[in-house]
Q: What sequence folds into this?
């Protein structure tokens, strides 16, 4: 059985609760044990690094050190949690002086960073560690003719790690195809949803969300699939405000890819958090387990 | 000893970024063409780098450019000179918060500080506290939009009622104190 230290992150506690429960349900179905990281703290999102860089790394290092104590690789479903934790791990491994300094701080919580584990995102765990074949084999209700816009967002892909394809990635499409869905050609799939600009620079964020929604609609998608709670929040909950601002009439459900996988695996709606959307996920209704 | 120039100060703030120095910029504008928020910026990212290199300190700090960076890292991955432009934007945010010098009316600095203070106090972030940054400056229409969305999220059970906190909060605070002394914050 595959085991990981599971770092849900702050957003998955409430706003993105359906991502949290659908992650756990689909992982269980695939024989993955997700062991929640004991007493984890916030990854800092994009804000810590605005204030102090060393602080930003220290807070992520605490989570890594807790996972190291369990001797498990860490998986983060949220793109920001993943990116911050991944790069902290990488920087500290490359910079022993900074690691020393941060270890001095971690002593206060009886922790130590040694650089012994890998940091993974959930899409990677599903597409690489488990593999598409095993995922296809678990499908009992193929998502036939469901047109899905695969929305990668930013921080799963960027910054670049090591020579991987980031301009035209296709692993998300392949995963959707593996459960019988039809990924559409979504040109803006790796463009930004605006992130926290929604709070600090609203006009800019609404314009970015508008572009994405328009492109998803033009591509013929019935739903947008995301792998990040902030992308989900921005694209779903601010559709109404985009409509008011731009005179548009968007009403596109935005769901987590784990909810789609769960449906295809025959897991009931309720255990996937389907029903907590602000824009009802009606295109999924015909696949729900009766 | 001469005082470091603004250009040197910014370079010194990039100690963890693994990219090329700003002096490697060839002013090609790929960053500006890539940036999803460029149309809202006072100066494009390309121009901003040029201004830093020319030591236009006051003009750089007075601009909104780096506060409109959403951290999407699209400029960083496309820069042919391999400059980590998004990290440069972070460095400018830190510099501007540190000097307490930024364009009036911007919400970004306050949002970042509120966020970090929330983490210092509880170890976790809490959406309702974040929203207050924005609400103080929102107009009536935006307030109504936000309130209506919050109500809908609440009805769907998607808003936290009580602020969460980690268990070993005292250790956590002492840990932070070893990195940056908190002073009045702790």
A:
């Amino acid at each position: 059985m595959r085991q990981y230290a599971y770092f849900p992150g702050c957003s998955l506690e409430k706003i993105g609760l359906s991502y949290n429960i659908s992650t756990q349900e689909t992982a269980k179905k695939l024989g993955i044990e997700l062991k929640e990281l004991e007493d984890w703290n916030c990854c800092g999102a994009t804000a810590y690094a605005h204030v102090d860089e060393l602080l930003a790394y220290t807070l992520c290092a605490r989570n890594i050190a807790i996972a190291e104590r369990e001797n498990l690789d860490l998986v983060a479903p949220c793109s920001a949690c993943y990116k911050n934790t991944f790069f902290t791990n990488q920087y500290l491994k490359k910079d022993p002086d900074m690691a020393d300094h941060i270890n001095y701080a971690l002593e206060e919580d009886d922790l130590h960073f040694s650089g012994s584990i890998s940091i993974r995102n959930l899409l990677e765990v599903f597409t690489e560690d488990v593999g598409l074949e095993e995922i296809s084999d678990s499908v009992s209700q193929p998502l036939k003719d469901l047109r899905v816009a695969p929305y990668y967002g930013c921080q799963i892909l960027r910054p670049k790690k090591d020579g991987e394809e980031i301009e035209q990635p296709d692993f998300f499409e392949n995963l959707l195809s593996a459960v019988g869905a039809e990924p559409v050609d979504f040109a803006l799939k790796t463009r930004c949803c605006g992130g926290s600009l929604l709070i600090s620079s609203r006009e800019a964020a609404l314009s970015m969300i508008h572009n994405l929604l328009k492109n998803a609609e033009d591509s013929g998608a019935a739903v947008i699939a995301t792998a990040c709670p902030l992308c989900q929040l921005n694209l779903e909950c601010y559709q109404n405000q985009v409509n008011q601002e731009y005179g548009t009439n968007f009403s596109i459900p935005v769901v987590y890819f784990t909810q789609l996988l769960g449906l295809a695996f025959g897991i009931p709606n309720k255990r996937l958090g389907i029903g907590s959307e602000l824009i009802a996920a009606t295109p999924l209704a015909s696949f729900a387990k009766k | 000893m001469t005082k470091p120039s603004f250009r040197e100060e910014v370079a010194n703030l990039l100690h963890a970024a693994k990219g090329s120095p700003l002096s490697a910029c060839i002013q090609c504008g790929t960053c500006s063409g890539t940036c999803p928020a460029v149309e809202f910026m006072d100066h494009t990212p390309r121009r901003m780098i040029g201004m830093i290199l020319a030591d236009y300190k006051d003009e750089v700090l007075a601009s909104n450019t780096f506060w409109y960076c959403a951290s999407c890292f699209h400029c960083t991955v496309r820069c042919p000179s391999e400059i980590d432009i998004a990290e440069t934007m972070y460095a400018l945010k830190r510099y501007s918060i540190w000097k307490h010098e930024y364009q009036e009316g911007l919400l970004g600095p306050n949002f970042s500080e509120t966020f970090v203070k929330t983490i210092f106090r509880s170890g976790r972030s809490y959406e309702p506290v974040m929203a207050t940054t924005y609400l103080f400056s929102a107009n009536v229409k935006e307030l109504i939009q936000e309130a209506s969305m919050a109500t809908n999220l609440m009805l769907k059970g998607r808003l936290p009622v009580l602020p969460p906190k980690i268990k070993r909060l005292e250790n956590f605070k002492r840990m932070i104190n070893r990195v940056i002394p908190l002073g009045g914050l702790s």
Remarks:
- The radius of gyration of chain A is 19 Å.
- Chain A touches chain B through 69 residues (CB under 8 Å).
- Chain A has two domains: 2-121, 140-287.
